[in-house]
Amino acid sequence: MKEIFSFSSSEFTEDEDIIQHFGMRGQNLMGLASMGIPILPGFILTEDFLAEDSEEHEEHIARYQKAFAKMGGILEKDWDEDNPLLVKLVVSPMLNMVHTFSSIHNIGLCDTTIGGFSGFVGEDFAYHEYRGVVLRIMELELLTTTDNTRRNLLEKTLEELRKAKKTPQIKKAIDSVRAIFPQEIFAHAGDQFFYIKELFLKLFAASETLSDSAILVQAMTFGNYGKESFFGSYTTRDSISGKDVLTGDFFPNSFDATQADGQSISKISKTYLDKLKKIGKQLEISYKEIRNIKFNVENGKLWIIDQSSVPGKSAQAEIQTLLDLLRDKHVEETYVINSIQPGRLSEILHPIIDKRSANRIPSHTGGISGAMGAAIGRLFFSTEALMKEYRLDIKRNIE
Predict the structure, then answer these.
(1) CATH no., domain 230-354
(2) Contact 108, 193 (CB under 8 A)
């Protein structure tokens, strides 16, 4: 157990005795990797490995370098100035739980790599992400420091950095932060990674619920990185009707869904569409339900970023999915019967509002506060009903 476990769509661990030490997130990733899903490469640091980090420093450094080299080789990136490898560090707890501080993204973004990264995504986006890395480092240290003087200094500097929104302001704010941190974390991507890792180990030591957690290190890609790049999100089938067709959008040259107008997933290049269909079917069969999948394409290469269940799916869609799985002999009849909750059957008898169409309906905001007793009265949803009540009021001599 005292080694680094790398993972990718072609490298993974299937030994259950080992996987149980990877934490919930690590176990999920190994499952996806074993299916050949094009997940971003990375590696897992177990509790046992981390416990010997300081004692076996030189040996561990060599193993870290090998693990990072594997990641970089797959992505054709490195911790250099031209095409930097950026990673996220994620806590992988043994229990499926939500923690207030679970990850830091874009580790490796520093003075040495910011120029190369800017060349792909633009200076404003690059410095916004650099700001995010520094913010998270400071927030993480605030969770572990016991020195009140240090805490006050961190809080003051952190507030200044949070106020910085535009690139010139961010540059100035980061310069202020340099005075209270080791200069190496701003100059070298590797030093920044190891500094952050040590902060997480301090967090584990201070928390009973995280003390046996593993650390997941995974490469990052961007939907606004190069000529053929985009972000997208889709469900493996229509979550309202249950029709076996992908539904969702993709956003050309965008980091996420907020940066550009989306296009229907059906309009994406057939090369990607066929792959997304295949991946969607694999995940439906594995999880036996509709799944929501987030992906991006960076310089023409498809990566699955995340996948999860679909909240709010209709009973009709849920039942249709199970019937299709039964038809294709992926489940037994007893599984279908036991999976359908009797209370949901009544939903089939009622009209269903498609949330996607509801999002396009014009909305109006304003008015008085909605507190109890702030206003009373009657609301009419048709002119006919309003005029009928008006005539009745006239008869009652009510103005």
Answers:
(1) 3.30.470.20
(2) yes
